[in-house]
Amino acid sequence: MLIRPETMGDTWRPRPDGPAKVTGSLPYLTDLVFPNMLIGKVLRSAYPHAELESIDTDEAKRLPGVHAILTHEDVPRMNRFGIVMPDQPVFCEDRVRFVGDAICAVAADTAEIATQALRLVKVVYRPLPVVTNPEAALTEDAPRLHPNGNVLHRAGYRRGKAQDAMADCSVIVEETYETPRQMHAYLETEGGVVVPEEDGSITVYMGTQHGYRDRQQLARILAMPEHAIRIVSSPMGGSFGGKDELNVQPYAALLALATGRPVKIHQTRAESVRSALKRHPMQIHMRTGADANGHILAHQVSIVADTGAYATLGPAVLDFAVEHATGPYRIPNLEIEGVSVFTNNGVSGEFRGFGGNQVTFAVEGQVERLAAKLGIDPWEMRRRNLRHAEDLGPLGQRIAPTDGAAQVLEAIRRSPVWPAQTGAAGPVGVGSGADVGSGSGATGEGLPLGLPWKRRGVGMALAMHGSGLGFGRPDPAGGRLSLMPNGKVEVAFGFEEVGQGLLAVIEQLATSELGCAPEDLCIRIGDTAVVPVSGSTTASRATNVVYQAIRRMKPSWQAEMVAAAARLTGLPAERLRLGPGGVWDSERMGADRPVLSYRSLAQQRSQHLPTAEAHFSFPTTPDAVTGGHYLYTFGAVVAQVEVDLLTGSIEVRRLDQAIAAGPVIHPMGYAGQIEGGGSMALGFTLMEDVPMTEGFYEVGNFDSYLIPTIADVPRTVDVDAIEQLLPGDPFGPRGVGEIGTVAVAPAIAAAVHNACGYVAHRLPISPKEIVQSWGDGTAGIGHL
Amino acid sequence: MTTENPLGNSPYVWRPHTVEEAWAIKQRFGEDACYVAGGTLLQLQWEGGAGKPRHLISLEGIQTLTQIRKSADEEGLVLDIGALCKLGTCKAHPLVVRNWPLLAAACGAVGSPAVRNRATLGGNVANGHGDTLTALLALDGELLWFDENSRTSITTAPVHSMVVSADMDEDIGQSADMDEDIGQSADMNGDSFGRSADTAGPPSPSRLLMGVRLRRESNAAMSGLRHISIFRKLGRRAAFVPSLVTVAASCVQRMDENAGSGQKNTVHATQIDHVRLVVGAIDFAPRRLTAAERLLEGAVPSPDLWHRLHANIMADLNPPDHAFASADYRRLTAANVLVAQLAEACSGFVKEGIQC
After folding, report:
1. Optimal mutation site among B247, B329, B355, interface A, most CBs of chain A within 10 A
2. Any idea where the FAD-binding PCMH-type domain is (chain B) (predicted)?
3. What is the CATH number that goes with domain B224-355?
4. A746 has a chain B CB within 8 A of its CB
5. Which domain holds residue A557?
6. Radius of gyration of chain B from Cα atoms?
């Protein structure tokens, strides 16, 4: 089903928070102002790797307008944070490991005074050799960044005998792929306000992707009980994984407690670039062999991830990359190993796609190369190797049966630009020696503008993407449904609205499942004082949790509501049902109002208002495979590009995606996730990277770190949502927050090759390499 | 903290209503003062860590600088565009679009729509490496200056004088000079409106850019000729991007419509004249490629000519390395784009207009 406004009927409606967001009237947490509020700033390390000899804050403390300056000596309990293993110092004691490491923090009357105070702090460093890349970090004589050395995590998977099976292969392709250090580039930089309350507790108004986990981490740092910390974490101006880990919460909290006053920290973009997480750059070596019929027999993979200075979710990202390194394919012989390595290059961590984007670029590149060598159409090559509905998961674990791979493969053929639709010969595939001068990449479209230096091409790619945190990781889920005294139906989840459209999903599911109208609802999220535990707002899990929770709560809550209404109205319960505005008499549905409004019900009942809660775990594989997933979504992408041979610049003209993720809940939000994810991945493919030199960032702002603008994204993007699940599938809609980003890069890379013969193995794709891939770089004037 | 300024670190903002007033304030505070028009470049520089001046002299209230004035003499059309004219206005102005599409294209290539609603032509010209400067150089534009000597009148100077001294013109490859040029640009602290007209030197407090003058020959003079112009800005994305390479070219070509197949809109490849080829970028001031211009001047297009032009530019152009584009890539793309697009434009299939 193509998602188009005209085919969506009543469900095509704006999200509840949409108008306030696009008009700019919605206040974010970083907009909050409290009486007596101070401004906090954090001093970050001047070096990427150094011993700290001394920190002298005396002069800074004497600056008028300064109210507190804190260092590691002021941290009440654990001077560390980190979701998986708390190894990142809140404040560094004796050593810094990246340029975002915090030395001290100041609270002052104004941002200017706070900045001035930080200038007055005297820090004596003794610079140490900088570990600039993971390969160097793994050598014997590399400086050890952590007590256990420079290996954060190793992961791997084997099946069959890959090395031996290579001997049976007709063709083998071998390539090393490199992916960039992408920045999340959320519009709202990290920040908010921490307010000390009269009872000794604190309220933290700062975005995160898991309020309860922030509370747990902060409790350890502040030596406070968790119940004394309230986290208000919605709405947020974007996160994409980047605000999943703690960022400035500890500093604002410590300063608020030290001064007894509200403290606001809102990082500038430059501060954000310096301190915040990035996507793991990965170097992925693959050796893949197939028989003469195109059946892949063996696949050897080696992944090296640059995880930067601290762990955060680095281990899980690597596990995910290992799991997804085979794509949606049946490969009998596998040998996958990965290592995540500490360096002094910032901190890499959680980012939409979670390691999948990197390995999908690589494995899809391998499939293209094999297809080309064998002379098999790239679509057909994929079909021959595609997983089946009942197959085990990529790590040999049991998964929820799914036909998603075949569904998206079939659907993406219908893209109007795919050769099957244009009647042109199929793309020739990578490495076939396509000659740029021959125009072989034009796929029947010729030279659209009559400009002899332009070439068009199309390419495709597939992706498989697990949702939820994976086996072995606590993945609690839940929600609460209750009638409030004012007659509103409260739907509460411990999730955050990060821009993904969560409120629309909750509204849509609650109204369709419960029968009430959007106006009847009071949606509560993002505030630990009032929401239940739902787990993290990550890993494409929230939509599924909302669906499952409402389905679980609905029977008992509805029954309780109806029973209460029956007692109050004297009508038999069987005749009553919930509807817009209240409880309706099913024999008088034509009436102009319910027999009992929710408000009346709440007022007359007054006590013990109907409430239901759900507590469960996100669906997990029963097999003890660490990190292994159970629910998977699938995506297929067709990209059409136009390459300018004069400059090597690439215009993506079309980016169609077919997605198999179960029923669509909110079509506008669904399409938004896939289109937006596609644009973000387009940036990853064509322009985004944070280069580093000796541990220092080469970019500091969006004037040099470039993300796509509206002029860079295709005007036409078809989103084909495949809603059919296998019969009996009880899990409902899967999330689509990530899948739209995963297969874009390899599809664009294949299209570029198809257009001009250039084979990309590194992202972002280099226009220079495209131009220079024909000797003297003058292919664009070859016609003269 | 210093407490002299009751506004803390915020600069004083002066809002003069006349050029003379603005000029006088600048004389009074010298290096402590900086003209500001749209403020978009200053903002970028401040964000990048540059210090703010003590005094900002806002030119926004000087109405005369916002005007676009057309006049005509026997030689043709003359257009004076006020320095305070917004880039967005300039880009869409009918006279500019019709007669100087190259400048319209350059204005449209700067920043984003929001930036172009604030940023001014004067600011983009006076910063020394703006895209419009590249275009104006190819159009033989003139700059209108208010200076110490003229006080009440205006001095005109060729755009050429803005970017380079005569002896450097021949050699864009003097990288040492260019580095210095860049350094000075960075030190300008946005004081672009007062930049010296004579060299790419430090800001001169004695000059204020009033506007830009463009001329176009009369219809009679252009009889049998057609204008060809090329503008292309290459960055790391499609829009709102610093230039890695900007090229602008302008020439006239004799039309010989009687010869050949006689197809409508088809003219034969004939002699080209008045050739201007310019290359600029975010980090180097635009330069005319005079050797390449001489090669084309009076020549009749042919494959051989275009290949010689390519070789000439490759030998002559020596841009600096940039963090996101090597010197050889910039050289190659400049040569490729100029040659391919000029060849296309001169081949007779494009009657008149601009290729971007």
Report:
1. B329
2. 5-219
3. 3.30.390.50
4. no
5. 476-617
6. 21
